[in-house]
Each structure stands twice: as C-alpha cells, then as structure tokens.
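User: quick one
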Amino acid sequence: MEVKGKAIKYGNNIDTDVIIPARYLNTSDPAELAKHCMEDIDSGFVKKVRKGDIIVAGKNFGCGSSREHAPIAIKASGVSCIIAETFARIFYRNAINIGLPIIECPEAATGISEGDSLSIDFDRGTITDLTTGREYQSQPLPEFIQQIVAADGLINYVKQAIGNGR
Amino acid sequence: MGMTMTEKILAEHAGLKEVVPGQLIKVKVDMVLGNDITAPVAVREFDKIGVDRVFDVNRIAIVPDHFTPNKDIKSAEQVKMIKEFARKKGIVNYFEIGQMGVEHALLPEKGLVAPGDVVIGADSHTCTYGALGAFSTGVGSTDMAAGMATGEAWFKVPEAMRFVLKGSPGRWVSGKDVILHIIGMIGVDGALYRSMEFTGEGVRSLSMDSRFAMANMAVEAGAKNGIFDVDDRTVEYVKERSARPYKVYKADGDAEYAATYEIDLSAVKPTVAFPHLPENTRTIDGVGDVKIDQVVIGSCTNGRIEDMRTAAEILKGRKVHPEVRCIIIPATPAVWKQAMKEGLFDIFVDAGAAVSTPTCGPCLGGHMGILAKGERAVATTNRNFVGRMGDPESEVYLASPAVAAASAVAGRIASPDDLTE
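Assistant: Done. Structure below.
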C-alpha cells in the first residue's frame, strides 16, 4: 500500500482534547467529528486539509483521553497517515484498531517540513520526502499488528477469528 | 529471570509461565468497562462482529457518567442507545442515574474489581484500579467491543518503572501531590508504554483514596498502568466490598526495571500543575499570585470520601471568595450519602459552595461548570490541556482537594496554611 500527500506539522504532546474537544462528543458520527478536528489547536486545519494529507508530529501524539473519536475524526478528515516521534499508547491502539495507518519515525518527524510532499510505502516502511528528496526508513509493525491492519481493523480480525472457530 | 507484578498478572491471564517486555500476548480479561461517550461507538462496532451474546453478562460494566444527567438531546440519545444495549444483552452492571457514580470511583466501591484482575476500560483513567493491585488499563471503543465479544484483549507486555516510596506525607499532602510531583519529575511521556509500579514501606502510609488518585494519573505520565503492592489496607478495602476470590501478586526480588526512583513522601510539598500540561508542576510555595474564577472538587481522581472530608475541614467556618464559584461533586452515591451523614454538606453550603450529583461533568468540559474565555479554575481533576474545561483560552490548574478548597476561600491559588483562622 502506498499513500501520497502534503505534510501538516504539529509539535509535541498533541492531546485528544485538542484533536476533538469533548464538547463535540455528544455524537460519534465521523463526518460530524471531522468538522471540528484539531479545532482548539489549529482552527485552520479543517479548511486546509486535503484527502491524502499526512500529519507529522513530535512526541506523545494523541495523549490524554481514550476517545476513539480522535483517530476517527482525523481519518474522516481525509488524513492518510500520521507520522510522529512517538504516540501515546491508547491512541496508537485505537488508530491500528480502526485502520488509520500510523508510523513512529523520529528522523522523519523532525526532518520533514510543513507543506512537504510525501510518499509512504507501507510494505517497505519507507517515507519519501519528495520536496527535499530525503528518504526515511521506519521499523516495520510487529507481525500480529500487521495481521490486524491486513484485516482492516480489529473488528474484522475478531470476526475472522470467530469464523475460523478460533 | 524474575517478573514484575504486571508481568505476573499478564502471564497468568495469558496462560503462560513467563512473559517478557515487548512480547505480544492475548489475555483473558476479568472486566470490560465503557461510559456514555465511548460505549456508543463500542456498541456499533460490537454489532459488526456478528455475535449475539456478550462473553459474560457479569463482567461488563457500562457507566453513563460523562454527560449525565443527560446534558442535551444528543447526549440523551447516546445514553438511551447504550442502556438498550445493556438491557438486550442482559448486562448486569449498568448503572442508572441514582446508582451511577464516576466509573473509577464506582467500580472499586461496588467490589467489581479486585487484586490480580485484568481490567480493560474504554476510558483512559481505567488505570485507577492498579491501586488494588490489579492490572487495569485504558483502551478505545473498538477494543471494548472486541473485549465484550471475546473476553480477551491483546497487549504488548510493558517494561516497568519502579517507584520506591519511603516515609509518610506531611500535613495537607495527599496522593494527588505525590503523583503530580512524580509527573513533574518524569514528564507527560516519562512512562510511555510502561508500567509504573509503586512499592516500598511508604505505601503503608497512603490511604486507599490516595492510592486511587495516584494510580488514576499514571496515564498522565503516558503509562500503560500504575500498580501498587497489596497490603492489609488493600485487603480490608476489598473484603468490605466483594466476596469474590482474588489473587495477590508480588514482584520477584530479581525482577527487572527500566528505571527505579526513590520518593521520600515526607519531602513532597503540596503541588500544582499549571496550564496546559500535568507536567508543568510547581510546589505551593512557588505558585505566585494566580487569581481564580472557579474551583472544582470531584472527579475519578479526587471525588472520594477522604477528599470530601479534607475539603470540609478547610471550608468549615469559612466562606468561598465572593468572586469564585466552588463546585463540589461527590463521585458516587455512597460518597454522597456518607458526606451528607457526616454533615459535610452543611459545611459546604454554609461556605457558599454548590454540591452536585455525581458526574464527570466539568472535568472534560462537558457541563456543570464550564469556563469562559480567560477564566481560570483550580480543579482536583486530572488534565489541564488547552480547552479541557471550556473555552480554549481558559486555564485549569490541577491540585489536591486541600489546595483547591483553600484556593476557593482565598480567591487565588493558596495553601491551607495561607488561610487565617
């Protein structure tokens, strides 16, 4: 699988309250949540994000609340992947579980600039910055997690497991 | 190689003799939890799996505590949906308003979690039950859905950090100050993907309510879980509330830790986390002059009876500052009733504070105390992110019930020692 898009950059400790403020959590409709994505930290995000764009952030992305509405809002905004130095653990699980690709790659997270055109090859784990010509190699996902991703999320994975009589 | 508390619990629930950090395992869970924000998403995902039944009607808890009593029509619809799901599936532990309390105060109180359990909850503060010597951790709604269907969850075995507690805390210092001190020391990602294990003779000097407050905020250091040694106090707490058998796990003497910290409890001062991260801590003697508009005493961190008693001790015979709203929210009906019986509500109301029915409400900027632009609150809650309690330009200062109550009287961040008789 390959995705292409422009980099939208953020700093460290982007928490799930700024990704999707609790005042909008009285719904779980992805399109509705996407309208308010990143609102409290970047009110221009919803206008500037294009389908395929890639969020590039610092340490501890997605810290705070376990709300799955956060990766759901990002995915529904059209974002194709998040690259960060590190992810908060619940956000990491949630993104994998709902089929939003994420990559931990400190070199890429610091080397890529806002607006750079990026191309990501998930099979090889490579991130190419088409603007600067630099290539970054990330660690491949553990096999078990790859199986969840291949099943397009945890629900399908469980469904298959139950179907196979476990 | 020896194992930590967390490793032992995970190994046994995975049916393995031994586990090592980094290992991916599938474990049986003893309890699956969700609330009115996360459960609606979980219910939708559960229905996609295509199984009729939940794995065990006694091992799922659904607690509508965030936007309840329903704050608006959309919230009411969400609660209606999860209530119908609970009824249809025969889920025993659904808590209607009147029995509902803030989930992480309610579950231990009801005896639904015990030492040695594995608990997953679609709420990040599920790590609270580590105070009982359980492995408990926050997950998302999809994990909750899969857990309800299969009774299992996948985990990467975490490395552990050991916090060896010594001595006993001084006057006006509680577990909240200790955990804020630790987060200030290691940072909001200082324990990322790791387990925080609290041990040492100092544990004995901490009340259960202090331990709950500390385990509760392990997630604010990025931890997967926080866990305490089980002692007589834990056993007494559990015995009074649950008849269920449980198992106590102790770390091996040769267990490996990624880091070990010694914390002298007697040296910890009342501590306040400034906006907008829980790691921005200052001790009370260094807070400066910060005028405030609101105080919130409650939440899954500090809404227990000891917290109510501390607030009452300070508010007794005093008045809330005329320019401050002081909102006190006992976390569960049992805490509420006990506080009422002890006459604490007389003290609160005479002081000019408002007492609310149990709810998470203001902690996450839901309802029952939202901040306007530029307003500041001192709260006994757990997060002070941008916009957490209201307007993105409002501010939250995290503190203990003692500091929060003293601040309500002073109209600025204050220590109980700053107040005149």
